Amino acid sequence: MPNQSASNASAHTASTKSVTLKIDGSTGEGGGQIIRTALSLSMLTGIPIEMFNIRAGRAKSGLMRQHLMCVQASQQISNASVSGAVLGSSSFRFAPSAIRSGDYHFDIGSAGSTSLVLQTLLPALLFANTDQSVLSTVSIKGGTHNPLAPTTDFLQQAFVPALAKLGMQVNIECVQAGFAPIGGGVIKATITPFMRRADSKPLMLTERGALTNIALVASVLNLEYDIGKRELASAKSVLLESVVDDSLITTKANKLDGIGEGNTCYAQVTHECGDHLHHEIFTLLGEKRTSAEKMGNRLAGLIKRYLFRTDALVDEYLTDQLLLPLALSGGGEFTARIISQHTETQAWLIEQFLPVEIKFETIDEQKTLVRVVC
What we know:
single chain; four-stranded mixed sheet; 9 helices; globular
């Protein structure tokens, strides 16, 4: 199969751009991820799409506000022709034109996830042109810390470092935090156009090296500062009881700026991986009637599962996020703890647009080799 990256995706699809790709939104996981990835790939390849049965299996089917914002924002950066995209719609058509670098500002109008909107636009803006002096900035207002979505912390501490290994330069700033149900948070991303080097090699993230650090971070928005400190103390205590070296653990409590109230705690677990350091992020959002101590215990439990039950390098959520960057930058392989239905659906959809093959080779119950072949 010929090497394929986004820089030559347009050549691959030149003869099929006028052919609309019909996508059943109820396929596989059947959620908003299909919408977001289809929009990204439509913009990158120029292939028009028609989506139907959108989120058909969900309690509230159709386009919700954050999904609609993904469509509208994609329309703006690619000068697309769009029909049928309204709140609650079960189908829409999207036909992109040229992607344009620039300075963009979007307001979801709710506590919908800013991270998910950004991840829709990011691949397109990375490949908007080949002049690395022409940056794009994207500011998005909404929720920065949402249930069932990657938090801004995840993007900053896990996703962006993974992109950097591929030579993709993205900076993400949390200007203001926003939690459900109020939102009001703002993130700002600065994106440098990507140029793949001729001597670049497929990314290999297969072997977990030495554990170098576990950074525990807890943050509060307009809540008692002591909540975060108690979460950190609880998580550290559990890890020490599990014979994790005290010298590898760092803790930090923060006060966030923003409106409303919220609490989050996360761990950045860092291992050596060849010439790289690999970062995994485990995040929890505070819950009413759940003590800080219990939150800390839960966080430590996520860390222990990753450290002691598998030697796979990449955990569940970063596995989802790595497939498209690898498919666009020349391929690679990595070991994953779990292959979720999200991941399987993402792989299926990428293969509808690009001449790549994504393979899952089971090693054991807690380890799968993921290969993206271009």
